[in-house]
Specification:
The complex is a heterodimer of chains A (184) and B (568). By secondary structure, chain A is mainly α. Helix content of chain A is 53%, strand content 3%. Chain A has eight helices and one strand, in the order H-H-H-H-H-H-H-H-E. The longest helix of chain A has 19 residues. Chain B is built from 14 helices and 22 strands. The two termini of chain B are 33 Å apart. In chain B, helix 2 runs parallel beside helix 10, helix 2 runs parallel beside helix 14 and helix 7 crosses helix 14. Chain B has two domains: 355 residues, FAD/NAD(P)-binding domain (3-Layer(bba) Sandwich); 166 residues. Classes of the chains: A mainly alpha (184), B alpha+beta (568). At the A-B interface, helix 3, helix 6, helix 7, helix 8 and strand 1 of A face helix 8, strand 12 and helix 12 of B. Strand 1 of chain A pairs antiparallel with strand 12 of chain B.
């Protein structure tokens, strides 16, 4: 019962855990915030690692630093239809196998370069048997990109968003624009 | 007790009642109150106070949990409203959910509604083009519906009246089929839109025009609008959230507070109108029965004059449900035409393309409007195998984007520094006039009622052969114009959307000269019950091609002044 109590306090802190009554302690608890998905903490961590490979930390924060995995799961849980959710979960669940089969090791043990080439090969795979991996990665990339660029961090600290875009100009010479380069 | 009852009746008696607080109702209320008429405005929904009740207006993109997208579960429960372009996370609270307010679709019809103070004036697209006599004379010339009892000269001063107060930005284009009005400075067209304008002149002379669309946004005369507490439009393009600047016209920012300020307006919100009370002895309408939205209790209010501005189809519903011995089929419905000749605008077709010229230019900033094609088909005479024609929106866009093909640091750098420019994207959508027909109608469901005891509305509205031909012609003509202008990669589409999604449903209580063939006279009075006025979309005899709201506003103001003469 102590474990349960500990988890209960953790749930209060994270707001995201529910206890699945079970005596089989080898089974992981399911995160209740995503009620349409069976997401365990380790699957969520894997998703964070994938998102962080898609947009890694550098001069400015990466996807995992700003918890883009939360956003991805909210979007998949709330805004995708059942079929899309199923494909996403199948892809996520089989991703470690895909990693072992393709890169020879579990995802966490690969270096950044290997991780990137694994994801790129999954994204561009035309192999029918890897369709779910591909769709899962495409969804993850799309929501990683959206969640990152539309995050509070980016929109306040990196590229401040203005509610007031300014007067319309219909003939701006591109050559006159001097955008400030942001080093990622 | 007797005295108490008299007091109760007195408390519930006004000089005028306006049913509906949206775009047209608020105009009637504003005119009446401004001229000292004690007016009760009845709104079926909740109050929405300017600024205070715009909860999302200053929210940043990341503050929306789904970044604007409506969750699946809500979409599944509300398929109709989910098809509306503006039903997004930032404005969903201003839309009626299908589930809460059912209706019967004899044929598919996407009925988009806003039940709150201000109605859909919070959500509208704010395009305001005047009609001309090429529109008012349409039915008589082409032999459909009935002749309008009014002409441009009757409504022109009222267009001016409402444009000035609402604030309309535009250019004086000098086109007889789209008369100029009281305009604040227009917004710029961009370099490719101007190029397309020139191309049209070159290839079509003076027969086809693409102009800046007139829009109800404040872009000048700022001291005048400051009296309403409104300020310059900031081009935020977040209008559907409600504008904290009052930059565009809504009932909430403009006419309702103006009416309120006179001290002559009483607002009764959360009151679903059941019917209009007809007194057989007096031979006129004497009041309105409402059902409290929360307690479901029925109450009665009384007035000398009643304005019905519940939005087109709900105005039909109220009149159809207002039965008495004298009017067993609905108020003023001696000829059986109430609910019939409903029409709309055909928005099915669109076209997009690319332009590889002017590649040294891009655009910056925002503007609340775009380009507009006034109708060029069958204007001076019949020239095609279909009646009437279409207006069209037009715009050209260009902005930088980022290459998102990679992943890792390459993707990150690219996302943070969008420095790629593709060709210009150009696009247009049609706004077709549809021909009102007796077979396009709304009626009361004989059995089913909503939670407030109102019969469900049955909607039976469909396209016809004329609409099909018009879609085809729009796509052919636009393709030709795009080709002549050198646009490439032209893509056409017909999305076969259901009627209603245009949110321009009209008719059912049409105006006309003859009480045998119409419901309303030229002053918007029911022929048979002259102290009842209808000045919203229900009153439309034909639809023309222009976005109709400006015309409803002008109708409401004009009719209110007519009613005041009868009040003495």
């Amino acid at each position: 019962m102590k474990r349960r109590d500990a988890l209960r306090s953790l749930a209060l802190i994270t707001g995201g855990l529910v206890l699945v009554p079970s005596c089989d302690f080898s089974k992981e608890d399911i995160l209740s915030a995503y009620q349409n998905l069976n997401i365990t903490p380790s699957l969520k961590q894997l998703l964070a690692d994938i998102a962080d490979t898609i947009i890694p930390a550098g001069n400015i924060k990466g996807a995992a630093d700003i918890e883009v995995q939360d956003f991805i799961l909210v979007m998949v849980n709330d805004c995708m239809d059942e079929e899309g959710q199923k494909t996403f979960m199948n892809g996520l669940n089989s991703f470690e196998d895909f990693s072992k089969k393709t890169a020879g090791s579990s995802f966490g043990k690969l270096d950044q370069k290997q991780k990137e080439s694994l994801i790129l090969s999954g994204l561009s795979s035309e192999d029918e048997s890897q369709k779910e991996i591909r769709d899962f990665l495409r969804t993850t990339k799309r929501f990683t990109t959206q969640g990152f660029m539309m995050s509070e961090y980016i929109q306040t600290q990196v590229k401040p968003y203005s509610l007031i875009p300014g007067e319309y100009k219909g003939d701006v010479l591109i050559a006159d624009l001097k955008p400030v380069r942001i080093n990622g | 007790m007797a005295n108490l009852n008299i007091d109760a009746v007195k408390e519930r008696t006004f000089q005028a009642i306006v049913i509906g607080s949206g775009l047209s109702g608020s105009w009637a209320a504003k005119e009446l109150c401004e001229h000292g008429v004690k007016t009760l405005v009845i709104e079926r929904g909740r109050d929405v106070k300017h600024i205070k009740d715009y909860p999302t207006t200053n929210m940043l993109p990341y503050e929306f949990e789904h970044r604007g997208q409506i969750p699946q579960e809500i979409q599944k429960e509300n398929p109709v409203v989910s098809r509306c372009y503006a039903f997004r996370e930032d404005a969903a609270h201003f839309f009626v959910k299908d589930k809460e307010h059912p209706y019967v679709q004899e044929k598919p019809f996407d009925w988009i509604r806003g039940y709150q103070v201000g109605g859909k004036s919070l959500l509208w697209a704010r395009q305001v083009q005047r009609w001309s006599d090429f529109d008012f004379e349409g039915p008589a010339r082409d032999g459909f519906a009935v002749d309008w009892p009014i002409r441009y000269k009757d409504i022109a001063p009222w267009y001016s009246h409402v444009e000035k107060f609402a604030g309309v930005s535009g250019n004086k284009d000098g086109l007889p089929n789209l008369p100029d009005g009281e305009f604040l400075p227009g917004y710029p067209l961009n370099v490719v839109e101007k190029y397309f304008q020139d191309q049209l002149k070159q290839h079509y002379g003076d027969t086809r025009h693409m102009i800046l669309a007139r829009c109800a946004h404040i872009n000048g005369n700022f001291d005048y609008y400051a009296q309403q507490g409104r300020a310059k439009c900031q081009s935020r393009n977040l209008c559907q959230r409600g504008c904290p600047f009052g930059g565009y016209f809504s009932a909430n920012s403009s006419t309702i507070p103006w009416a309120e300020k006179t001290g002559n307006m009483t607002m009764r919100t959360d009151a679903v109108v059941h019917s209009i009370i007809y007194d057989e002895e007096k031979g006129k309408a004497t009041g309105v029965r409402i059902v409290d939205a929360h307690t479901k209790e029925m109450e009665e209010y009384f007035a000398d004059v009643i304005f019905v501005n519940a939005a087109a189809l709900n105005t039909n519903l109220i009149l159809l449900n207002s039965t008495s011995n004298r009017f067993p089929n609905g108020l003023g419905n001696d000829n059986g035409l109430l609910g019939k000749y409903v029409a709309f605008h055909n928005y099915r077709a669109g076209i997009s393309a690319e332009y590889e010229g002017h590649l040294e230019y891009t655009t910056q900033g925002g503007r609340p409007t775009s380009g507009y094609f006034p109708r060029f088909r069958n204007v001076l005479k019949q020239e095609t195998d279909f009646l009437r024609g279409y207006a069209a929106g037009f715009s050209a866009n260009r902005g930088s984007y980022s290459d998102q093909s990679g992943i890792g640091m390459e993707l990150k750098e690219s996302l943070l520094n969008p420095d790629k420019y593709g060709p210009w994207r150009v696009g247009s959508h049609m706004m077709g006039e549809t021909i009102p027909k007796e077979s396009n109608y709304v009626a009361l469901d004989p059995n089913q009622k909503d939670d407030w005891g109102m019969p469900l509305l049955r909607i039976n509205v469909d396209y016809d052969d004329n609409d099909e031909k018009m879609v085809k012609d729009y796509l052919e003509q636009m393709t030709e114009m795009f080709e002549k202008a050198g646009f490439t990669n032209i893509q056409t589409r017909d999305d076969h959307r259901a009627p209603g999604l245009d949110i321009h449903e009209m008719g059912g209580v049409r105006m006309g000269k003859d009480s045998k063939t119409s419901l309303l006279n030229g002053n918007h009075q029911l022929h048979a019950v002259p102290n009842v006025y209808v000045t919203d979309g229900a009153s439309m005899t034909s639809t023309a091609t222009q976005n109709p709201s400006l015309t409803y506003m002008a109708f409401a103001a004009r009719a209110a002044h007519h009613a005041m003469k009868t009040l003495g």
